[in-house]
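Renewal narrative, Specific Aim 1. Our central claim is that a sequence can be written position by position from structural information alone. The example that follows is taken directly from our test logs and has not been curated for this report. It begins with the structure tokens describing the chain, in the order in which they were read.
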């Protein structure tokens, strides 16, 4: 759905490949992709990810171990490091690098160590969003992952669209529209909602 909307706006979406190299020729760039193709453009924006900045903190001297898999400070489910009286939470552990997750890990640590209320953070169902237009958001398992884990899975599909019958445009067009430019109008009501349900096993809910 989001992909179709973006493609309608003229955006080309390539999946299953990444950027291998970017060459600059004068004011232009050629981006070489892992699928062997290349893209010529005037600008390139490339999100390369992040890495925990744990060098030169003296962690080795304290005996705090680094997680060899992700380069962050190694912790267990209680955010405890290899040194029992040292805890690490947030991006420095390179688990799920989001603000609400860091806050939750901090709360869980404080509850556990100072509040006498042991709490572990569940990193399995964290909602994430891409602030694109339209927005993309995910939470929990993908359909493929759910099918691999559960014998019975119900699939629901929902999409949103502006309520066509509820036209709140003023009688006269905005000056931007009169000049042929797009003008953002506030919506008067919540969008109309359509639901589709695909049932693989009628009468059964998702169960382990
Ligand atoms: C461009 C960008 C966009 C993002 N957008 C989102 C978003 O939309 N939503 C979302 O949920 N998350 C977003 N994040 C991620 C979010 O910012 C982090 O997950 C969050 O800030 C982690 O909190 P933290 O406390 O672990 O680390 P930080 O917020 O990085 O705090 C670490 C602090 O430690 C300090 N520090 C570092 N080294 C030392 C040292 N040696 N001694 C003392 N202090 C030190 C730093 O100066 C910093 O103040 C974004 C991150 C980036 C980079």
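The sequence written for that structure reads:
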């Amino acid at each position: 759905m989001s992909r179709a909307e973006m493609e309608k706006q003229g955006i080309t979406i390539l999946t299953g490949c990444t950027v291998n190299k970017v060459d600059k020729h004068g004011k232009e760039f050629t981006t070489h992709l892992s699928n062997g193709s290349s893209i010529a453009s005037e600008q390139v924006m490339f999100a390369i990810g992040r890495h925990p900045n744990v060098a030169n903190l003296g962690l080795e001297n304290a005996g705090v171990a680094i997680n060899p898999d992700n380069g962050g400070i190694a912790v267990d489910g209680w955010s405890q490091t290899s040194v029992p009286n040292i805890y690490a939470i947030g991006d420095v552990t390179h688990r799920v690098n989001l603000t609400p997750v860091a806050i939750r890990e901090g709360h869980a640590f404080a509850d556990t160590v100072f509040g006498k209320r042991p709490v572990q953070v569940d990193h399995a169902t964290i909602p994430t969003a891409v602030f694109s237009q339209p927005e993309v958001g995910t939470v929990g398992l993908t359909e493929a992952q759910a099918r691999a884990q559960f014998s019975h899975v119900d699939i629901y599909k929902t999409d949103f669209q502006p309520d066509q019958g509820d036209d709140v445009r003023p009688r006269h067009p905005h000056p931007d529209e009169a000049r042929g430019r797009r003008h953002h109008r506030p919506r008067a009501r919540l969008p109309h909602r359509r639901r589709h349900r695909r049932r693989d096993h009628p009468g059964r809910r998702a169960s382990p």
